Amino acid sequence: MKQLMFAIVILAGFSSLGADQPKKTIPSGSKLCIEGEQGFDTFLTAALAKKKVPVSVVDDCGRADFKIAAATQSDKASWSRVVFLGQTGSNEEASMKVTNIKTSEVVFAYAVHKRNSARGKQSSAEACAKHLKDAVQ
């Protein structure tokens, strides 16, 4: 019986751990600056507009509330993948993290891997924007 009571007390303590901590979100209307490589920042900017994410993108990080660090990698279809597997699209990997500039706290992070992507970087940028939209309130 003592062990059962101990387990209940421990579980009750774990269930209240996250209750006092504020949820990390990005306020609607925030200004974001994007630091990307290989032109991915342009794809991500277009994807944010297409997915209607309620933020504005600025070029000057000094005027931004949040900073997006984005990276991408493309693997074009080789002749063997085209011939043997029929894959004509590229494999795309992209990741991003959103950092609050004032507090240096990472408030959002996402990574995506797309196989045989017909639209390449555009597709992975749209996936990042779609999930970022969920984090904006």
Report on this structure.
With 137 residues, the protein is an alpha/beta fold. The chain has helices spanning 2-15, 40-50, 79-85, 121-135, and strands spanning 31-35, 56-57, 66-75, 90-100, 106-117. Strands 2-1-3-4-5 form a 5-stranded mixed β-sheet, with helices on one face. A hairpin with a 5-residue loop joins β4 (90-100) and β5. The radius of gyration is 20 Å and the shape is globular. The protein starts with a helix and ends with a helix.
Spell out the blueprint of helices and strands:
Blueprint: H1 2-15, E1 31-35, H2 40-50, E2 56-57, E3 66-75, H3 79-85, E4 90-100, E5 106-117, H4 121-135
Parallel strand pairs: 1-2, 1-3
Antiparallel strand pairs: 3-4, 4-5
Helix pairs in contact: 2-4
